[in-house]
Specification:
By secondary structure, the chain is an all-alpha fold. The protein has 2 helices and no strands.
Length: 101
């Protein structure tokens, strides 16, 4: 096998290299087009679902606020219950004198 490069062999290798470069450019272009199409699809999906995401975030915020209001209400409600209980306890042990007529 002759390892020396002659002009014919060199031209053949050059053609193969050019074909490979051309094919690589085509593949890269196809991949780039696919990536751009995916990016466009994601942008469209983001724009389409923007309203749903806003509603979700607003409901989530309302739930958090409702939970805080509920927690405050329960905290506030315990004081009259405690006071009422203490009043009846004090009444049972005779701390309050009934009016004598």
């Amino acid at each position: 096998m002759d390892r020396r490069n002659n002009d014919q062999r060199l031209l053949e290798l050059e053609k193969k290299l050019d074909a490979h470069i051309s094919e690589s450019h085509q593949r890269f272009g196809d991949l780039l087009d696919a990536q751009l199409a995916c990016t466009k699809a994601v942008e469209d999906l983001t724009e389409t679902t923007r309203g749903v995401v806003e509603v979700y975030n607003n409901l989530n915020g309302a739930i958090v606020v409702g939970k805080k209001v509920q927690t405050f209400g329960l905290w506030l409600l315990k004081w009259p219950v405690i006071g009422y209980g203490l009043y009846h306890l004090a009444k049972q042990i005779g701390l309050f004198m009934d009016k004598v007529n």
